[in-house]
Each structure stands twice: as structure tokens, then as C-alpha cells.
Amino acid sequence: MIFHLVYFLTAVLDAGEPELLKRAVQGDKEAFGEIVARYEKRVFRVARRMCNCDDDAWDITQEAFMKAMRAMHTFNTEYRFFTWMYRIVTNTAINLTRSRSRRAEVAFDEGYGGDGQTVTDDSTIQDISSDILVDAVRRAVLQLTPPLRAVFVLRVDQELSYEEIAESLDIATGTVMSRLNRARSSVKNFVVREVGGEP
Amino acid sequence: MTCIDRNSLMMWVDGELSAQEAGKISEHINNCAKCSAFIETQKRMESLWREEWTDPSESAFEIMRSRLSPELPWWQKQRTWFIAAAVCAVYLGVRVFFTGNAGTPLSEIAIQEELQPVVAASDVPLETEIEEQMEQSVIVQAEDTDFTDNQSVTDDSPAGDELIISAQEEENLGEVSGNSAFSDWQAVDLTMAAEDYAESSETMETDRERAASVQDQTDCLAGTVQQSAGAGAESASGGGTGSGAGGLSGVEYSCYRDTAGVLGQDSSPAPSGEAMASGCAYSSSSISSGYTISITMESTEIAVLERSDWIALFALTDKLQAENFYSSGDDVVLSVGITGAVTGPEEINGAVIDIPETIYGNSTITVHFY
């Protein structure tokens, strides 16, 4: 019985998103609060992936929602809200990351491109334990430049399509493809170097 | 065989190729170990990184929401609590609507429902237990100058069997006594032998300790409480009638099990513990009036009482309170019931003992002697 009540309440609370967005655009703070509750986990996750720091991630999340709230009246409800929100949070993260860290970003390697040549030893990575591998990937992602990292995060972590990524970052789909290719190449080469293989 | 470029392979992995292009690549991958290994490696790296994630606690998000804007509604800042409160409110509303009862603790209802089949199926074990307990003796010690030597017990239970209660004066160690004196009646010592509690369940351990510690605290409504020194232990035996001298000493008492009692459905004599608990010792035809003892459990917990434990309730002498007097002519009628939130008054007349197996915190046990 409790389950049904929870289900019922959840259904009631989960009012249609288009209606919520319309209300939020009109300045309804309750509606915007509901939107925040729906998207906060995803926004935080993107922020955390972008900066790899909890405190920064919370700052980015909060600032992103504040920006969204201030700009809500400009949002066109015919577009997808999540891509709009992703754009805000990735831009916020990129700006914050760049302002806090001016370290030299590792130049990405054109590890694999259109020539069909691979420069990594796949068997090397396959033999690595999961713990070591995931740690290496985590550090490799942080070595990416923020624009590459944003594409990598939205594709690999959020599993957005190329089109959605392009819409989120306001770039062309071809740019998404090239950045993603470079990001993946860079990550893989970094991992191979870290685990002792020859890139 | 020429390998496919990595960009195309990753687009295939991402599902960004047309069906025709994807089909070609799939065919190639099935026949190319190198490309297949590349894809597997990339998938492994990315899936490990993606799955290495734990969401922060809900409270962290609530803090973020509270900082986000003070203008956000409170229920959105405290979303978790709001939903929990809403669920509780709806549940109570539905409960009141369908049952009209929101005051009874849910646990009581649940246990009452659970008890029904248990009680119905308890015939054989009860009989066995009763037979075993009949071998036990009960110390009933009372001091009542108005008791007559010849006291009879009226058996209003047609199917009841006798229970012979014997009391031993020398076995007073660990007794818990409460002496109630009433304006138009007698002072009664209710003495309970601690040894009868020895095998009680652990759930009653606290009650026993409390009872032992409050022997002097009994304060009855209509009189004072005097601690019994143990004089007048009687040996109750025989059925229907008995005799006693010096209070209850030497008086024979009988007690019967209700054939339709909560734990009954048998006509076996009540165990000694029950006899004491129900106050059979006071069931005397010479008593022209009765009284009610109410015992209120302060604990809100549920205590499941074995029959031998039930007597321990009466050890809560600090909670004994005479509430009423009854006159029932020459017949002495004993009833034990529960009032309050459990089952409501269940008075069973005719030297019948209705022993509740389960009692709940904040319940009132009412014992009528009349």
C-alpha cells in the first residue's frame, strides 16, 4: 500500500515537463524548483566530471542553476531544456576550471585518426586491472582541455548523441566528432603511458 | 584486409552510423581481431569510468537547493522530508477513511491480526503446558482480617476444571507484595512469588525488577498499601469451595480456565501463575464486594506474554489502582479483561480467567473481582 502511495505521489509530483517549463519561464519559482529537483543530479554529475572536485562541483551546480533561473525568461520552450542546461553547466565549469587552473594543458595526441593506424597496444590495456585502469582514465580525462573534456563527458558519461552534444555546446556536429575523436585518442594514449605500455 | 579507421569504429560504437554503414562495419569487426580488440578496449575504459560514480547524499542536494534561492518554496528545498510527510499523511487519511480508526497503533492492529490464527491453533500446546504447570505450586500470600475461613468459589464455568492452588508460607523469598486496604472491604495482600517468574521471558525482566523495587509504592485508590510480611500464606486446593483461616491462610480456592478464553478452548485448570495473576486467592464467597485493578504499562513497547509471565503484570504494584467495587451477592465472580486500546473490556464471568497472551504498552489491564 505504501508503495502505491509513493507511486501516486511521485506521479502527482512529476507533472508534465512542458507545463513546468512554461510556468518557470513565466516566473513561477515553484515550477523552477521542481525543475531543479529533476535535473540537479545530472547537472552535478557533469560538473563533477568536468572539475573532479566536489566543492567546485557544488559551486558550479549552484551557479549553473542560478544562471538558469535568471535567464529562464529567455528560454524557448520549443527547445530541449536539458541541452540548454548542459550548455550552462559546461560553460560554467569550463570558465571556473580555466580561472582556477592555468596549468599547461596536455596537448592531445592524434593517436588515431582517419588513416586507420593505431598507436596503442590494446592488449596492454586489456590486461590491466579495473582499479588501475579506471584511475588512469580518470586522470587522463582531467588532462583534457575543457572543450574536449566537455564533449567527452557529455558523450561517454551522459551518453548524449552527437546532435545533442552539438546543441548543448552550441557547436557543429562535425566539431563534436573531431573533438570526441581527439579526446578519446588522448585519453587512451595517456592511459597506455600510465600503465607502462607504449603509446 | 584493411582495417576501418578508428573514427568510424567509434561512431559505430556510439550508434551514429546509418544502418548500411553499421552493417559493413559489423561484418568487418567479426572478421578482424585487431578492430575488435580496439573496440573492446575502448568500451572497457569508458564503461569503467562511467560506472565509477556514486551520487551524493540527498541532504547535500537539499543544502544546495537552500542556497540556490531563499525564494524557493520550502517543500522543494526539503523535498525528501516533504515527500515522506506527504506519504504519511495520505496513509493516515486512507486508514481513517477505511477503518475509522487512526488512534490505534499500527503495531497493535497487526499483532492482533496475527494473533487470531495463533490462538485458534494453540489447543494442544496449551493443554500440555497446563498439565505441566499444574505441578507447580503457587504462593499466594495475603493478609486480610475480614476473610472468613470458609470461603467458596462459585464455578460459573461449566466446562472448567479445578486448579488446586497451594501456597507455602516458607517460600517467600523474592516475593512482591502489594497490600490494598479498602474503605468497606479488606486489606488484601497480593503476594507473588518471584520463583514463579523464574522462567519468564526476557521481555518481562524489566517489569519484574520494577515490581520488586516498588513494593512500598503501591497506592490504591480506596486505601493504603501495606507491604505484606508474608503472613497468611494459604494452600488452596479443592474445587468450588474452600476454607481458609487467618486471612487467606488455609483457604481453599479454585480457579477455572475459560473454555472460550483467549488462550483457552480447553477446560484445563489454569496454571498456577495465572491463578495468582487473576487473583483466585481472593475469590471467596465471603467477599461481598469486589474491586477492579487496573495496570497500566508505561512502556510503549509490546510485550508478548507467556502464560507464566502474565502474573508478572501484577507485580507492577506501583500501578495497581482500585477503581471500582462490585457486589455480586454471595457468588464470587472473577473476570480478567483488557481495556484500552487492545480489545476493549473483556469481562468473563464465573471464575473464568481470560489470559491475554499479548499485551501492549500503554494498555490497561483490568481485573474485576466481584
Could you tell me the radius of gyration of chain B in angstroms? 35 Å
Report the structural category of chain A: mainly alpha
Question: In one word, what is the shape of chain B?
Answer: elongated
Helix content of chain B: 25-40%
What kind of sheet is the major sheet of chain B?
Answer: 4 strands, antiparallel
Quaternary structure of the protein: heterodimer
- Give the end-to-end Cα distance of chain B, rounded to a whole number of Å: 106 Å
What structural class do you assign from the helix and strand content of chain B?
Answer: alpha+beta
Number of helices of chain A: 10
Our Rg estimate of chain A from Cα atoms comes to: 20 Å
Q: What does this entry look like structurally?
A:
The complex is a heterodimer of chains A (199) and B (370). Chain A has helices at 2-13, 17-25, 29-51, 54-71, 81-100, 122-126, 130-142, 146-157, 162-169, 173-194. Chain A is mostly helical and 199 residues long. Chain A is elongated and about 55 Å long. Chain B is α+β, with helices and mostly antiparallel strands and 370 residues long. Chain B is 34% helix and 15% strand. Chain B has 11 helices and 14 strands. In chain B, the strands form 6 sheets. In chain B, strands 10-8-14-11 form a 4-stranded antiparallel beta sheet, with no helix packed on it. In chain B, a hairpin with a 7-residue loop joins strand 3 and strand 4. Chain B is elongated and about 115 Å long. Classes of the chains: A mainly alpha (199), B alpha+beta (370). Chains A and B meet through helix 1, helix 3, helix 4, helix 6 and helix 7 of A and helix 1, helix 3, helix 4 and helix 6 of B.
